[in-house]
Every structure is written in C-alpha cells, then in structure tokens.
C-alpha cells in the first residue's frame, strides 16, 4: 500500500521541520511549503491525502487558505487539519471548513491520530 502524503504549511520553519521529521518517521510522505501564497498551487499539483496547516500565517492565513481549498471542486473534499496556538483558533478553523483542529503546543500522538483518522472518512 502506498504511503499517505501529508502537505505541511506553516510559516515557522522550525515547526515545519519537526512535523516533517515526525510524519516521515511514522511512515508518511511529506510535502512542505512555508509560504502560504504558494500553498494552493502546490496542493493542486501534488494532491496530498492530508493537508496540515497553521491558522495564523502572514499574507494568506490558514482560514483563508481553507476557504480557497473548499471553493475548488477538485480539492474541496480534501482532509484539512488546522493547528494554532490561538484560543479562538478552533472556531475560526471549523468555520472556514477544517476537518480537525489541534491546539499548539500539541501532543504528538494527537497529531498522528488526526492524520491517521483522515483515511477513515471520505477524502
């Protein structure tokens, strides 16, 4: 069976590096992008199984990116996990159309469970 591919978008390269290492050690393929303005195009080209993105990023915020994903017919069913340190982040993420929300700092097992749960629903 092919590995699940996770697209990671966060403007903090330290978090991106940590997430990439964690996910790859757990058997996932990863695609990373630190500039949210490039994210939609990368998602359209790569068609990842899971999208993992930060809510608060400069230029194009995570909630705006989720809305753009949900507007595209070919992308709208993608599984999106939103991460944020913001107390209000959960409401913002779900209103934008996220499938899951994980608060920073997050528990590694919670994150892996959220990525794994994406295969339990329709993509």
TrEMBL record:
Keywords: Phosphoprotein. The modification 4-aspartylphosphate is found at residue 54. InterPro entries: Bact_response_regulator, CheY-like_superfamily, Sig_transdc_resp-reg_receiver. Pfam families: Response_reg (PF00072). It comes from the Bacteria. Residues 5-119 form the Response regulatory domain. This is CheY-like chemotaxis protein. It comes from Sphingobacterium zeae.
């Amino acid at each position: 069976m092919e590995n699940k591919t996770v697209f990671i978008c966060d403007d903090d390269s330290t978090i991106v590096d940590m997430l990439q290492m964690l996910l790859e050690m757990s058997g996932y393929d990863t695609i990373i992008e630190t500039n949210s303005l490039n994210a939609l195009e990368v998602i359209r080209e790569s068609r990842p199984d899971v999208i993992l993105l930060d809510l608060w990023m400069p230029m194009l915020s995570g909630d705006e990116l989720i809305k753009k994903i949900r507007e595209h017919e070919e992308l709208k069913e993608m599984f999106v996990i939103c991460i944020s340190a913001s107390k209000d982040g959960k409401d913002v993420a779900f209103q934008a159309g996220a499938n899951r929300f994980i608060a920073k700092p997050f528990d590694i097992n919670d994150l892996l469970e959220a990525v794994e749960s994406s295969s339990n629903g329709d993509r």
